[in-house]
């Protein structure tokens, strides 16, 4: 057998199309490529079941695309990748660049251990972290100027899948069975094309959890089943406010990744150092009630139950439940961020931590701390007929319309708890604690 001259190490790019790293591997290997995915215990052990289940399903679909020849190995990539490259006589190992704190350190160690080059091409982003700089040559800390610079910088067009690949096999492990539907590159492309028919309404409907009108593309983006450049190319052909609003959300995702690349500590520490002095309560019974969707505030409980049941949570509701934990229950945002990472199918470290910091008021370009979402008011505004609440809180299905948001005013409900805090009192306490660190 001829030497396998190129190894394609798949990570957050579980697709064949618009994958520059794969094209480089095909060119370097003269068409012969070994595709590998490493089940890294440091990542696998810390992931919750929703992420594990989707990852396994996506790997099954990727392996199908590789004629069943995706090599899966378990262990530390610092050991696995050099050993595999030596085993097959690889001349190069190809990856999409990883800009996360762990990924950068891991790749540096792999590169040092390899006897052939580690070639990084492309990234999971339209514009890789570190590329967008202000006039002083420094990264942006505020989103709006970042967004303008991001649009001005632009991005390359999507690239096609390689025309021909001879996928080479090697010994590997069997993937676990998967019961998840809708994973993989083909499903992601179909989901996106279907959503494009409704993207014109995105700006008007994106805050309405009752309409279930968001794209849910954060899930395939997390695993690289689709690249944002593919989506941006399609959005460029849609001259509507909804497409513009959606493009802005893709830029926010890249802003979060850029911030984390600049400040790796921001995964769990506030970007604004004065918040290190903020007084927080230890998570206890109230935190447990929040996790379980048993707070007595219908919108909060509907959201947390949707999260537990589906591994997904509507973006507006993510903000409201996060605000409730930090500013009504006075629990440090990192506990909520960790719960989300365990529970979300789309759990992404940069987006998760930096969005929690935005809500908590301690991040870059964060919401003002005094912006404290009223959980009842948010429900009445964005779920005006109570449909979302009744969908996820069956104890309240007997209440019509908006009355579902204030069951205590309408006779309550058997088995449904009373509110665990008084929002007005909790708001005053949150502001008192904030005043102490100003």
Shape: globular
Strand proportion: 5-15%
Count the helices. How many? 19
Can you name the CATH architecture of the largest domain?
A: Orthogonal Bundle
| Amino-to-carboxy terminus distance | 68 Å
The gyration radius over C-alpha positions equals: 23 Å
Q: Can you characterise this structure?
A:
With 438 residues, the protein is mainly α. The chain has three domains: 6-123, 3-Layer(aba) Sandwich (Rossmann fold); 125-158 and 186-262, Serine Threonine Protein Phosphatase 5, Tetratricopeptide repeat (Alpha Horseshoe), CATH 1.25.40.80; 273-437, DNA Cyclobutane Dipyrimidine Photolyase, subunit A, domain 3 (Orthogonal Bundle), CATH 1.10.579. The chain contains 19 helices and six strands. Strands 1, 2, 3, 4, 5 and 6 form a six-stranded parallel β-sheet that branches. Helix 5 links the parallel strand 4 and strand 5. The longest helix is centred in the middle third of the chain and has 22 residues, at 241-262.
């Amino acid at each position: 057998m001829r030497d396998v001259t190129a190894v394609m190490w798949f990570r957050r790019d579980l697709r064949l199309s618009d994958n520059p790293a794969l094209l480089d591997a095909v060119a370097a290997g003269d068409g012969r490529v070994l595709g590998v995915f490493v089940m890294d215990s440091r990542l696998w052990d810390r992931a919750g079941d929703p992420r594990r289940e989707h990852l396994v399903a996506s790997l099954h679909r990727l392996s199908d695309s590789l004629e069943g020849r995706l090599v899966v190995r378990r262990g530390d990539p610092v050991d696995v990748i050099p050993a595999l490259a030596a085993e097959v006589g690889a001349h190069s190992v190809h990856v999409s660049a990883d800009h996360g704190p762990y990924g950068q350190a891991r790749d540096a160690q792999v590169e040092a251990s390899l006897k052939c080059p580690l070639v990084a091409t492309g990234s999971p982003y339209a514009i890789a972290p570190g590329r967008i700089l202000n006039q002083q040559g420094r990264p942006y800390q505020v989103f709006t100027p970042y967004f303008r610079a991001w649009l001005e910088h632009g991005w390359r067009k999507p690239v096609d899948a390689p025309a021909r690949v001879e996928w080479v096999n090697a010994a590997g492990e069997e993937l676990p069975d998967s019961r998840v539907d809708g994973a993989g590159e083909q499903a992601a492309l179909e989901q996106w094309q279907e959503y494009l028919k409704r993207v014109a309404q995105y700006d008007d409907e994106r805050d309405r959890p009752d309409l279930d009108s968001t794209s849910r593309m954060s899930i395939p983006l997390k695993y690289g089943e689709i690249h944002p450049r593919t989506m941006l190319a399609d959005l460029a052909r849609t001259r509507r406010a909804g497409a513009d609003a959606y493009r802005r959300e893709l830029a926010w995702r890249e802003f979060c990744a850029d911030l984390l690349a600049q400040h790796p500590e921001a995964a769990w520490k506030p970007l604004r150092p004065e918040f290190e002095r903020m007084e927080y309560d230890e998570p206890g019974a109230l935190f447990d009630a929040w996790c379980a969707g048993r707070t007595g505030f219908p919108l909060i409980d509907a959201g947390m139950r949707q999260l537990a049941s589906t591994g997904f949570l509507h973006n507006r509701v993510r903000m409201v439940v996060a605000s409730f934990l930090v500013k009504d229950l006075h629990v440090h945002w990192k506990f909520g961020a960790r719960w989300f990472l365990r529970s979300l199918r789309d759990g992404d470290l940069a987006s998760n931590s930096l969005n929690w910091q935005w809500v908590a008021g301690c991040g870059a370009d964060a919401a003002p701390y005094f912006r404290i979402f009223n959980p009842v008011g948010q429900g009445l505004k964005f779920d005006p007929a109570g449909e979302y609440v009744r969908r996820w809180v069956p104890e309240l299905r007997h209440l019509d319309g908006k009355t579902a948001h204030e069951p205590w005013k309408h006779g309550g409900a058997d088995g449904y708890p009373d509110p665990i805090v008084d929002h007005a009192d909790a708001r005053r306490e949150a502001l008192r604690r904030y005043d102490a660190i100003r």
